[in-house]
Design a protein that fits this description.
Helix content of chain A: 25-40%
Radius of gyration of chain B: 17 Å
Distance between the termini of chain A: 10 Å
Order of helices and strands of chain B: EHEHEEHEEEHE
Order of helices and strands of chain A: HEHEHEHEHEHEHEHEHHEHH
Number of helices of chain A: 12
Mean pLDDT of chain B: 91
Low-confidence stretches of chain A: none
Mean pLDDT of chain A: 93
Low-confidence stretches of chain B: 1-10
Structural class of chain A: alpha/beta
Strand content of chain B: 15-25%
CATH class of chain B: Alpha Beta
CATH topology of chain B: Rossmann fold
Largest sheet of chain B: 5 strands, parallel
Number of domains of chain A: 2
Number of strands of chain A: 9
Shape of chain B: globular
Largest sheet of chain A: 5 strands, parallel
Largest interface: A-B, 21 and 19 residues
Distance between the termini of chain B: 21 Å
CATH topology of the largest domain in chain A: Rossmann fold
CATH architecture of the largest domain in chain A: 3-Layer(aba) Sandwich
CATH superfamily of the largest domain in chain A: Aspartate/ornithine carbamoyltransferase
Strand order of the largest sheet of chain A: 7-6-5-8-9
CATH class of the largest domain in chain A: Alpha Beta
Strand order of the largest sheet of chain B: 3-2-4-5-6
Oligomer: heterodimer
Radius of gyration of chain A: 19 Å
Number of strands of chain B: 8
């Protein structure tokens, strides 16, 4: 097993499958009266969040607590970071307190990789800048496998703001490792030139959502990051929604079995309409539930044994 | 299973292998345990068999099968994975987690009989009792093992024992079962060849 989880590309097919299989066992704990396992008793997990997050932080916290680890939550707001402490000094502080794992979210791409060189414990990337978010990719893969029964040979469309999306990048890396075929869809301004070839061979790019929809098993809608909406990547929100938003008529053009995913938080009415988000094809709520199981599996596999 | 270190004498001698139970013996022993369970539980009413992976699982299925042959009662069978409850988790590389499958009726208020192949230190059973505690509240818990080789490190004993094998710590006991290994056999390895 690997020591850190920094990128969707860190995982080979066997390791990724082991995580998904372990997550399936962890999921059974959620159905029990006592939702607790003793596997990480006495271990300390620090959630180091330099960026706002609800579901990822809570998901990691729930996962660590269900495995009986001690959890320390650190958010940049209200900490010494506002007094100007550097990431390295913060890391060394955590190290001195005996953190066995650090779960980090940071606005700078690559921050988790730097951190991994400074601390002895395991580092889990919970989203760095516009770079990667590997546990999201794992929970997406888990959700696809749970709904569709397999990953190899699946055709997955990732739609929207690929340029700024760490979710998209991690998903392309992981899904292609696991044998799925990814098509990136969005306006040309939001899909970096040559991203497909640079990330994983076999990845396609399309600028026309309607032509892609009839042939996919999974549509993954990405959040349009509102903070970038004035940067003229597209003329207007309405035009974006008309060309790349998933609404009822578009959903009905999908194959019968196809599912609709979204990593959240959603902009209802922008990239996805409420009709689609609340339809039985949507896995958005399942994704949150599966997130806890997948993060339990990751924490157990990184910290459960003597892998040092 | 690793052989114990070779004795000081040279040239190195072959570690001794002794067949304790052959295929037919294993079947007879399983039959006897099934009879004992029926006797001690007054017909195996309100009883659930839980196998501890890996080899406790097929043993539990066989016992249920024999019990239904002898007395025509269907005893629910399940699997109890104890990986996350082991006390030596952090002494080894991370272990893969196996499935836990409880029978549809659950285990609350039932008489649970844990089934394993070899009873040795008792630590596996301790972990199983902890795991059981988290998945339900049985009325009582019993333990059935194919082989008891002694050397307990915890105050644990079995209710049903297929075969008591006095061993030294230098020896190792290996159980093979047709469902997993192709043959039914119990072998004793190592120690001083006699």
């Amino acid at each position: 097993m690997i020591k850190h989880l920094l990128s969707g590309g860190d995982l080979d097919a066997d390791t990724a499958t082991e995580i998904l299989d372990t997550a399936a066992e962890m999921a059974t704990v959620a159905g029990r009266e006592i939702k607790k396992l003793p596997a990480l008793r006495g271990r300390t997990v620090v959630n180091l969040f330099y960026e706002d997050s609800t579901r990822t932080r809570i998901s990691f916290e729930a996962a660590a607590k269900r495995l009986s680890a001690d959890v320390i939550n650190f958010s940049a707001k209200g900490s010494s970071v506002t007094k100007g402490e550097s990431l390295k000094d913060t890391a060394l502080t955590l190290q001195a307190m005996g953190a066995d794992a650090v779960v980090i979210r940071h606005p700078a791409s690559g921050a988790p990789h730097r951190l991994a060189n400074w601390v002895d414990g395991s580092v889990v990337n919970a989203g760095d800048g516009t770079h990667e978010h590997p546990t999201q990719a794992l929970l997406d893969a888990y959700t696809m496998r749970a709904r569709l029964g397999r990953l190899a040979g699946l055709s997955v469309a990732v739609v929207g703001d690929v340029l700024h999306s760490r979710v998209a990048r991690s998903n392309v890396l992981l899904l292609s490792t696991l044998g799925a075929k990814v098509t990136l869809v969005g306006p040309p301004t939001l899909i970096p030139v040559d991203i497909a070839g640079a990330l994983a061979p076999g990845t396609d790019v399309s600028y026309d959502l309607d032509s892609v929809l009839p042939n996919v098993d999974v549509v993954m809608m990405l959040r349009v990051q509102r903070e970038r909406m004035n940067d003229s990547y597209f003329p207007s929100a309405r035009e974006y929604a008309r060309r790349y938003g998933l609404d009822g008529p578009r959903m009905r053009r999908l194959p019968e079995h196809a599912i609709v995913m979204h990593p959240g938080p959603m902009n209802r009415g922008m990239e996805i309409t409420p009709e689609v988000a609340d339809s039985p094809r949507s896995t958005i709520v399942e994704q949150v539930t599966n997130g806890v199981s997948v993060r339990m599996a990751v924490l157990y596999l990184l910290l459960g044994g003597n892998n040092r | 299973m690793a052989y114990p270190p070779a004795a000081r004498s040279s040239p190195p001698q072959q570690p001794s292998v002794k067949v304790i139970l052959a295929s037919a013996d294993v079947q007879r022993v399983v039959d006897r345990i099934a009879h004992q369970i029926l006797e001690k539980t007054q017909g195996a009413a309100n009883t659930v068999l839980l196998g501890i992976p890996t080899r406790g699982t097929p043993l539990a299925r066989r016992l249920a099968d024999r019990i239904s042959t002898f007395e025509d009662v269907a005893v629910p069978v399940g699997v109890l994975d104890i990986t996350l409850y082991r006390d030596d988790l952090r002494r080894h590389a991370t272990r893969a987690v196996g499935p836990t499958e409880l029978p549809p009726g659950g285990i609350d208020g039932k008489r649970v009989i844990l089934v394993d192949d070899v009873l040795f230190s008792g630590r596996t059973v301790r972990a199983a009792l902890d795991a059981l505690n988290d998945v339900g509240r049985p009325a009582s818990v019993q333990l059935a093992v194919l082989v008891d080789r002694g050397h307990r490190e915890l105050p644990i004993r079995a209710d049903y024992v297929g075969k008591n094998i006095p061993t030294s710590l230098a020896e190792s006991v290996k159980v093979t079962l047709a469902e997993i290994d192709g043959t039914d056999e119990v072998k004793l390895y190592g120690g001083t060849a006699s």
